[in-house]
Write a structure and sequence with these properties.
This protein has 316 residues and is an alpha+beta fold. The chain is built from seven helices and eleven strands.
């Protein structure tokens, strides 16, 4: 009987671990696919910005083809026996995704030199445009591009439901400081307790409206405040699991998202170092028209503005 119980315990533990590892594998591949999406968009941006330099474009395409072969060869060198089932254990898919992401992130870092532009006076810049020229080309491209031609940010996400919530968070809130610093309705994979429930599930048409709104460059480019104290959020679910979230602060006239929204990055305000890393500063506040369209959707969802007094003594 004791042996039977021990066997039962081992089986239950193994199943639980397998499920946990499967979730870890899926999460690792989601992270890789996000990096892969960033790489594809970076590559496409460079093609557009350097279209007047056909020799460079041909060289870039050749380089990208060779890099894909290099990436695959590096992956095979890392895991040469990957075709043999179970050779590297159940953790192998996660490790494989991690390495793919690492290689992809390095390629993005390489291509960002052309995406961002070089400094004046760099005699070794070669085909890299100057940042001043790049900025002007970018702004001209924005003026000419049609919203329907932009990448729609939800298309690469894996979700089956979007919920809209209102909640309360500010610098004087009773929430933990770490939650405030994140400025998000989500903490440790769950909704924070100052969320108004039950929220509102978006219809398919409303999801399309939101996707179109956030793929339109005309939604962004307005002034924003330095604070970020969001009161509205759109939360993406896969089953009962939260997979993504967008937090919106109408007072601050801006939003943040835990996945890339390219339209937010078309109005370039500045270049340089951000938090010690090479990057671009974007003027990603809402325009008047973008703000109006967003508010109209929030009103349609019947989500009022939430203040501290609304939540006095209320916890979820």
């Amino acid at each position: 009987m004791k042996n039977l119980f021990a066997l039962f315990f081992i089986l239950i533990t193994s199943v639980g671990f397998a499920q946990t590892q499967m979730e870890m594998n899926e999460e690792a591949y989601r992270d890789f696919h996000q990096s892969d999406s960033v790489l594809n968009r970076t590559y496409s941006d460079i093609i557009k910005l350097y279209k007047s330099d056909p020799e460079f474009i041909n060289a870039l395409k050749k380089s990208q083809r060779l890099w894909i072969k290099f990436r695959d060869a590096e992956l095979e060198m890392k895991f040469p026996n990957y075709k043999e089932a179970g050779y590297y254990g159940s953790i192998h898919p996660m490790c494989r995704a991690y390495y793919l992401k690492e290689l992809t992130d390095k390629r993005i870092e390489t291509l960002m030199e052309w995406r961002i532009g070089g400094e004046e006076g760099d005699g070794c810049g070669g085909s890299v445009k100057l940042r001043e020229d790049f900025l002007m080309d970018s702004l001209l491209a924005v003026a000419k591009i049609h919203p329907d031609q932009l990448y729609k940010p939800f298309d690469s996400l894996d979700f089956d439901k979007v919920m809209a919530f209102n909640f309360f968070i500010d610098s004087k809130t009773f929430l933990p400081l770490s939650t405030y610093e994140v400025g998000s309705i989500v903490s440790n994979g769950s909704l924070i307790y100052s969320t108004h429930f039950p929220g509102v599930e978006l219809t398919k048409n409303q999801i399309n409206t939101l996707n179109n709104l956030f793929s339109d460059t005309l939604t962004f480019g307005g002034e924003k405040r330095a604070c970020f104290e969001p009161h509205h959020a759109f939360v993406f679910y896969k089953g009962n699991k939260i997979v993504n979230a967008i937090n919106i602060c109408l007072d601050c006239n801006q939003m943040n998202s835990d996945f890339k929204i390219p339209a937010m990055e078309y109005y370039i305000a500045d270049y340089g170092m951000t938090d010690g890393q090479l990057g671009i500063s974007f003027q990603n506040g809402f325009t008047e028209s973008g703000r109006t369209r967003l508010i109209n959707l929030i009103r349609e969802l019947k989500l009022p503005y939430v203040s501290r007094k609304d939540l006095k003594g209320e916890k979820h």
